[in-house]
Write a structure and sequence with these properties.
about 15% strand, single chain, 7-stranded mixed sheet
């Protein structure tokens, strides 16, 4: 993804960007014709800093105003309050990465009642959203994640643990289900220690849980962490236990945050996508809907920088853009 200089403005409205020119006619629009879009991701983290970069890049390219606000932690109530605030500010579009898909259904209904275009990410088939954008096929991503973990653990296998952000984050649990199916089918020597642990959006909780698990269950050979803070926390625990290279950690964290752990061997690999690409697509799609072009959003839609979707399932556009980061290539990807 191209990097662009952005202008950051402090204040409750967040960050606004000037108009640019790609894909839409811009530059001559009056203030009344300029759409305002609010992005509300799960929490503040390096992962969602990259999401914001994509947001600002798209805003500049497509001639809209955009800002991002996020709760300080993965708190569904705090996220809902930020969304309500954005709705009350009279925005045109709402771009959300939900902490709890179900709890936001009535909030999204209020947005749509006010004619606010609503898009989500990491929330397939989200109710009361115009569209959801996924950068990977969820089942394929879960299966591939298990392949990466199995390779890192090695042929002798052993017990493994799965982290998710919460038991109500749709994407994390779809990935976990697919990973477990892959383990059952292809890796009979890998055994799930217990049901998934909902600690992967809190690095401290992920670390403490991993320390407890490694102390009580020395047979554990791997952690598969879905959620941005799970792998760093598990890697901290692996390092503290001097198990670098002996216990594998694979997760969906940012390369920047993972870099130190990949380099010291306490983390084996990162599997993810570029969240900035998701935000970029969301801005593009929201503007199409606002421009009265919702009917053009189909399997032949070619979004700049991303191309055509792999599939469209009801309101969910699915792309196939996974990225695997290891010690060997982390320096190429540690901008987020």
């Amino acid at each position: 993804m191209r990097r662009r200089d952005v202008l950051s403005l402090a204040g409750a409205a967040g960050t606004l960007v000037a108009m640019g020119g790609l894909g839409f006619s811009v530059g001559a629009a009056s203030a009344a014709e300029t759409y305002t879009m609010a992005a509300i991701p799960k929490l503040r983290s390096p992962w969602f800093n990259q999401f914001e970069k994509g947001l600002l890049d798209a805003a500049k390219d497509f001639g809209v105003k955009a800002y991002q606000q996020a709760p300080s932690s993965a708190d569904e109530a705090a996220q809902a309050r930020l969304i309500e605030d954005a709705i009350n500010q009279g925005i045109n579009a709402l771009l959300v990465v939900p902490n709890d898909a179900q709890s936001l259904v009535p909030v999204f209904k209020r947005a749509q009642d006010r004619k606010i275009v609503t898009l989500t990410h990491e929330s397939p088939q989200q109710r009361n959203a115009d569209f959801d954008v996924e950068m990977i096929d969820n089942k394929a991503f879960g299966r591939k994640s298990m392949d990466v973990l199995a390779e890192a653990i090695g042929p002798d296998g052993g017990d493994f643990v799965i982290y998710v952000g919460s038991l109500t984050v749709p994407a994390h649990n779809i990935w976990a289900d697919a990973a477990l199916a892959q383990a059952k089918e292809k890796y009979p020597k890998l055994k799930l220690l217990a049901d998934r642990y909902p600690v992967s959006e809190d690095q401290s909780a992920a670390r403490q849980t991993a320390l407890d698990i490694l102390t009580a269950h020395p047979t554990v050979k791997g952690f598969l962490c879905f959620g941005s803070q799970g792998a760093p926390g598990a890697s901290q625990a692996v390092g503290e236990k001097s198990l670098n290279g002996k216990v594998a950690v694979v997760g969906t964290t940012s390369p920047n945050q993972a870099s130190q752990y990949l380099k010291d061997g306490s983390m084996s690999a990162v599997i993810l996508w570029d969240p900035g690409e998701a935000a970029y697509a969301m801005v593009y799609l929201a503007k199409l809907v606002l421009d009265g072009k919702k009917g053009t959003i189909n399997a032949d839609l070619n979004i700049p920088k991303l191309g055509k979707p792999l599939a469209i399932d009801k309101n969910t556009l699915v792309y196939d853009r996974p990225l695997i980061v290891t010690k060997a290539n982390v320096d190429e990807h540690n901008g987020f």
